[in-house]
Structures are given as structure tokens and as C-alpha cells.
Amino acid sequence: MPQLGRAALLLSLGLVAYALIAGSIAAWKRRRRLAISAQNALLASFFSTAIAAGVLWSALARRDFSFVYVSEHISRKLPLGYALAAFWGGQEGSLLLWLLILSGYAALAVWLNRSNRELIAWVVPVLAAVAGFFAFMLCFVSSPFATAPAPADGAGMVPSLQNPYMLAHPPLLYLGYVGLTIPFAFAMGALLSRRTDERWIVSTRRWTLAAWTFLGVGQLLGAHWAYVEIGWGGYYAWDPVENAALMPWLAATAFLHSVMIQEKRGMLKVWNMVLVALAFNLSIFGTFLTRSGVVNSIHSFSQSPLGGWFLGFIAVCVVFSISLIYLRLPMLRARTKLESLVSREATFLYNNLLLVAFCLTILWGVTYPLLTEALRGETRSVSKPYYNFFLHSFGLPLLLLMGIGPLIAWRRASLRALGRMFLIPFGVGVVTGVALIAAGFGSSPPGLLAYTFSAFVLASIVLEFVRGRRATGSILRLVGRNRRRYGGYLVHAAIVLLAIGVAGSSSYQTVREKGLKPGQAMTVAGYTLTYRSLATKQEANALATRATVDVSRGGSHVTTLHPGKNSYPVEKMTSNEVSIYHDPRNLGDVFLIADQINPGSNTLYLKALVKPLVNLVWAAGFLFVFGALVAMWPDAVEQRRLADRYAAGAVAA
Amino acid sequence: MTLGLVLGGALALIAVIFVARPFLREPAPASDRLDEPGELERRRLELVEERDRALAALKELEFDHRTSKVNDEDYRSLVGPLRRRAAEALQALEPRAEARHERIRSKH
Questions:
Q1: What is the distance, to the nearest Å, from the Cα of residue A11 to the centroid of all Cα atoms in its chain?
Q2: Chain B: residue nearest A418 by CA?
Q3: Cβ-count burial of A339 within 10 angstroms (0-12 exposed, 13-18 middle, 19+ buried)?
């Protein structure tokens, strides 16, 4: 059925092209029926794209190797789950996933906001233009429906992708990346329609939060995937493609904070537009990095013809958004000013500056090697120390601000009130810092600062809940009436857990390597690791070799671990299969990597890492999702108020 | 091959009908104009947003005062201007609200 897939994609392209042209004319000439027709075209494009996606999924499930995409990405022995996940394992499929999610989001956003005809009339062509680019690429540059005589078996899937995280990490990341198109389209729609009031913000508040949450969770899942699968003992390598997901997330984080200042004070309208455009353009840039093959990364696909197209599209998007913001500057002027540099909105502003500065330094780190290679032909790389320097320079003040912000009132705060509010959190922070130094944890100044600031932030969050509960009489009532605020605090607590986990597992980790024969042992951070034996086992599509290593502490047996390697005959590749013990006492891991195995002499070259507190990084993910859900959960009172605000307009119009 | 093309053609036909639906449902509408708020309506929305902002700020201030984030002195200096802003926005909206109610009454 490749013809059906091609026909469906061509139809999608036709529909979004119609939505772009007819939608623009309708919005420009104020034609009601044409505007609805363009909306219908956008809705229909989702269904035709879904049919194209269905064709590809069906080919993957049936292992129809006459599809070049199928024969290049799966094999007959690959388990069905991974075969279906190969949809986003290759370049053409992941572009189709982009279009599928975008057209689905676009259809839903247009449907939910269909009563807001004036704004949506301009949103439709913007969404259609973005979808049109991806539909064009899929039809004419990188089609997943190319066919060839079917080989007896396919090339299979890269071993590192054969992991349960493959089922969740890429789609979640895409839900985040693509989701940032919706606030961008509404922001541009607001500028095009000259409706620079808060309606576009109200319409996209939850979309932005959802996209930001997906992007955050997607990154965390990717980090855990790298941790358990890649076998180097870390979870974030400042890989350009990892950075590509972090940058739009940072820009969106800045936007989520600064948009509150616009809602509460009517300020920062230009800045918010810039941030929305930045987040969207960075999400396209991230897709470019992954799809074009310009960077060598575990995530990126081979060299492809997509690079030039993506660069052209990014240039168009950047020029379009900057020009439009510039043209509408007079409509974006704020009527109020910052009253004091010591106020909640001022801390949001500092937070924004730090987030954007961090985002731009990462952007420079990613683009510098590309530019030097393109302009001078020199191969340069920007490595961990560069990023760590800026992580400490911007990340630690950001952490501190998370504790300061909630303690300061909006508009302005007197020093006396501040002193009273800061007393307990400041005391908790100082006591924690001193206690850590006394306990011998002063060896890493960034780690020490991270823990001290984390204690300060957690104390300020706990105090916020305690004071709020006292004022309202119940935690449920408190959170129910202020979901965004207290959901935000929970997200802040998650970031603190993340910071504690990252600081503990990086600043205080222990690493040992040793070649062992059966019966020999090595020690690492108080654990004794005794190598017992080696065994091989045939699995569905790999030959698994596993070592048996007993882990003991203080003479008592703790657990038995099985690090090893998998050999994939179809893919002709070998992967490291790490083995991990989660120690509940220090919330850390004993992480074993079989660096080299010599089956002839039964020798095992074992690399052991002890990573204290690393499990807080993953626990932070659950709290992050919970906090985000609290913040985006619909508030009936708020919904009624907003419905009244805009319905009244409809009566008057 | 043929089945794929037939299905593709059928899909295209359904899509065309769906896209043309607004014109098929209303071949000759009384008005094909997309509503556009006038200057008055835009001003009203600005005032409503201003009113909502002032009321939300008042609510926030009350809460911060109850949780001791804002002391009595700061509260007194901040609450007056906020109340004035909310009152001004409400006052500015009042005649328009009256006019709107009048229009609704006259429609019935």
C-alpha cells in the first residue's frame, strides 16, 4: 500500500497549502466561509496524515520489506514493539511523526478555539505554513514510502535503540517540540490580527505548559535511557542533540514565567513574543540538528539532503517572526513599569535573563563547531567544561532565585517584611552548608553551593505551603484555589531534587576500573565486588554474555549483579548491558559496566561507579509531572471568568 | 496498486467535500463577513483585562498579607491604588454594560 501512503501525504500537502493560501486570503479579506473552509482543510490534513502514518505502521508490523524504510530499520527477528517504534527510529518516519503530531495539535487547537474566529483566522495560515514545510519534505525530499525489491531480511535496528525507552522517549520529546508550534502560531496570529490583548495567552496557556512538560519528561526519559543503555555511567553528555532539546525547554521555561508578568501587570509583551518565537525556532533548529546529520551524535541520522531545506525554513521563520514583532512594536508597549527591583516580578525578570543567557550560551556551544567547520574548514568541539562552567554560572543563581521568588510579594517588598520571610529558609540553608562542610563534603564548591541553595529553596517552598494552609485552613483548598502557583512550587521542588541528584551523582561519584579473574574482587566506595563467573545465552535477536558479580558491604552480601554485552548478528553490532543496584540507604546506585570481556580466559574488565543520590534525578521526574498537572488542571472558576470576559465581547460585537 | 489509488482518490474526494462544506451549506449567505471587533469593543476588552488584573492583584495582595509576606504598612500603601484602579476600570465599563443590556433588551 505505499501508493495509499504517498497519496495521503500528497493530500495532506494539498490541504495545508490550501489552508495557508485560502486562510491568508480569508483573514486578509475578512471572508467568513473561506476562513472556515481553511480550518476544515487543516482538520482534514490530520486525518490524511493519520492514514499515511497508519500505512507505515502497518508495513512495519507486517515486515513488508518492499518499503525501503522498513527494510533499512527493522529485521524479521526484531520484537513487534520495537518494529512499531521504528516509526520514529529513522529520518523519514520521524518527519512523518512531526507532521502527524503537528496536524493533530493544529486540528485540536483550531477546534477548541473555533469560536474565537478573528484570532483563529490568522492562526490557521501560520500552522498550515509550518505543516506545509514538513508535508513538502515528506512528499519530495524524504519519503517514507519509497519502494524497492524486497530483501529476504531487513537491516535491523541499532542495538542502543532496542530499549523500552525507545517506545516513549522520542514521541514524548516530539510532543514537546511540536507543541511549541501552537503558542508560536497564536502569538503570530495575534500580531497579524493586531489583537495584542491577552486572548492568545489565555488560548495557549495550557498548550505551552503541556508542551513544556512533554519536553521536560522526554529529556528525563532520554537521560534515563542513556544511563541504563549506553553504558558510560552518565545520563547527560552535553551532546548537541541533547542540547537541542534543552534549549527550547529553557526558552519555554522563561516564557512560562514572564507570561505571568504580562497577565498580572500588562508588562513584557515584546519580550514574551520574542521568547515564544525563540522557543519555536529552537525546536525547529533541534529538529534540523537531528535530521540533517551535521553533528555526530547517537541521536542523529546519517548525512541527508534535509540540512539546506531546514536552514532555509529556519531563516524564513526567524525573519518572519522578528519582522512581525518589529512591525507591531507600537501595539506591544506596556502601560505600567516595574515598581521595584525587590519584587516578585523583578525576580521573574532576573530568572528570565539567566534562563535566556544559559540558553544562548548552549546555542553558541552547539553552533560554534558547525560554524568553524563551515567557514574555516576546521574541526572544533565544545566539550563538557564549557557547559559545566555555564551550568554553574547560571544554574546556581537560578536555583537560588527559585527560593527567593516565592518569599517576595508582587509589586514591592519592604526590607523588614523580607527579613522576616527569609529568616527560616536562610537559617536552614546556612545550617545545611555548615553541616556539609563539617561532614567532609566541602571538596566540591559547586556541589556544596547546590546543596545549600537546595535546602534554602525547599525550606521556602515548605514555608509557603505552611503559611498558605494557615491562611486558608486546608491544603486542598489552598492548592485548589491557586493551582498555578502551588503547582509551580511543586515543579520547583522537583527541580531542587534534580539539582541534588545531579550534584550528588556528579560531584561526589566514585569510579574504579580493574581486570578480574573469577573469584577476584575489587572495592569501590565501601562496596566489595566479587567476580564469580561468565555465561552466554541466546536471546530473540542477540547473543547475551553476562558476568555474575556479587556485591557486598561491611562483609554482608547486598545483591548479585550481571553486567555484560549483547552481540547482534543481523545488525553486526555489540552493546554494553550495564547492571545497576539501587541502594535505598543513600538513594544512589552501584553501576557496573563490563568494559571488556575475554571469554577465552574468563577475564572481565569491570568498571564500577558509585553514584550517590542519583535516584533523586528520576524521582524528580514524577514530582515534575505531578506539579505540572496541578498547574494545568482546569479551574472551573477561572474558566467561567474567562468565558464571561470573551462572551461579553461577542454580545457587544 | 489500483486499490491504493482508489482509496487515495476516495480520501481526496471526502476531503474536498469537507473543505467545501461551508460553501455547500451556505451557498448565498446574508453576510460572509468575518466579525471584527470595532474600536469600542477593543477598548472594552482592554478595560475588562485591566479590571481583572486589578481584582486579581487585590486578591493576591490580600493573600500575601494574610500569609505575612506583606506587612501592614506595605499593605496599606498598596491596597489603595489597586482598589482605585479596579474601581476606575469598573466605572469605565459601567455605561458600556448598560448599553449592552439595553441592546439585549431591545432584541427581545
A1: 31
A2: B69
A3: middle
Local structure of A463: helix, strand or coil: helix
CA A512/CA A608 separation, integer angstroms: 5
The reply to whether residue A118 touches residue B48, judged by beta carbons under 8 angstroms, is: no
Report which of A158, A157, A129 is spatially closest to residue A41, judged by C-alpha positions: A129
How many domains in chain B? 1
Find all residues with CB under 8 Å of A115, minimum gap 6, and list them: A650
Burial of B18 (0-12, 13-18, 19+ CB in 10 A): middle
Residue A429, classed as helix, strand or coil, is: helix
Mean pLDDT within A108-120: 89
Could you tell me where the DSSP H helices lie in A137-239? 165-179, 181-192, 199-225
DSSP β-bridge partners for residue A553: A527, A556
Q: What separation in angstroms does the CA of A495 have from each of A206, A282, A403, A498, B46?
A: 20, 22, 11, 5, 36
- Asked if A260 and A205 count as a contact pair (C-beta separation under 8 A), the reply is no
Within-domain flag for B16: no
pLDDT tens for A307-332 read 889 999 999 999 999 999 999 999 88
Closest Cα in chain A to B32: A32
Residues of A in contact with B69 (CB under 8 A): 407-409, 413, 417, 421, 467
Q: Tell me chain A's radius of gyration from C-alpha atoms.
A: 27
- Asked if residues A68 and A148 have their Cβ atoms less than 8 Å apart, the reply is yes
Return d(Cα A170, Cα A100) in angstroms, integer.
14
Q: Which helix (H) or strand (E) holds A534?
A: strand A527-538
Determine, yes or no, domain membership for B69: yes
Q: What is this model's ipTM?
A: 0.81
**B45-58 b/e (C-beta count within 10 Å ≥ 16 → b):** bbbbbbbbbbbbbb
Beta carbons of B34 and A652 less than 8 Å apart: no
φ and ψ of A533, to 5 deg? -160, 175
Three-state SS for B38? coil
Domain that holds residue B50: 37-107
CA pair distance A469, A463, nearest whole angstrom: 10
Q: Is residue B56 part of a domain?
A: yes
DSSP three-state, residue A478:
helix
Tell me the chain A residues in contact with residue B102 when contact means C-beta distances shorter than 8 Å.
Answer: none
- Tens of pLDDT along A463-510? 999 999 998 888 999 998 889 999 999 999 999 999 999 988 988 899
pLDDT value of position A471? 87
User: Do the Cβ atoms of A409 and B74 come within 8 Å?
Assistant: yes
- Which chain A residue shows the shortest CA-CA distance from B93? A648
Does residue A41 belong to the interface with chain B, where contact is any CB pair within 8 Å? yes
Q: What chain B residue is nearest to A263 in terms of C-alpha separation?
A: B53
Q: Which residues of chain B make contact with A466, given a CB cutoff of 8 A?
A: none
Contacts of A408 in chain B (CB under 8 A): 69
Which amino acid is residue A132, in one-letter code?
A: G
* CA A501/CA A19 separation, integer angstroms: 47
Closest Cβ opposite residue B18 in set A10, A27, A40: A40
Of A401, A368, A396, A403, the C-alpha closest to A383 is A368
Distance separating alpha carbons of residues A48 and A36, to the nearest angstrom: 18
Strand partners, A607: A513, A593
pLDDT in tens, A521-545: 999 999 999 999 999 999 877 899 9
Of A27, A36, A420, the CB nearest to B22: A36
